[in-house]
């Protein structure tokens, strides 16, 4: 059999999955993941997921989009096509703010979506853990821990996961 794509362990409870994740992390494994029917904050902390990159991308894109929108309005109203309507100044900044705000929010929302997809490596239509027997229950009532081992390390990963209390099943998947 060729080197596995992943070693996957199935658990009935979130607490068992979190304990297994701690043991796997403490054993030095870096390429680990957790899957379950609902978010488990402790699992996210153990794996090391971070939410701030998406927020930074959204804020940066919002500021850039708002600045570009405001700059375009200013340039068009003051330099390119100046019109004196009812005695208002050419640079009527209060009138520029609603459109600037709307465009900034739209840029931030689109950047947050694209940034989240990019940081999560999506769209990914197939992952090795999808081939694990019973993995469809990750959306119902089971919790899974997966390790993506380097070549020759699958036996060590499998032994570690089998030693975890509460492991219902441990499988190597291609």
From TrEMBL:
The chain crosses the membrane at residues 54-76, 96-119. Signal peptide: none annotated. The keyword Membrane applies. The keyword Calcium does not apply. Keywords: Membrane, Transmembrane, Transmembrane helix. This is DUF3341 domain-containing protein. The lineage of its organism: Bacteria, Pseudomonadati, Pseudomonadota, Alphaproteobacteria, Acetobacterales.
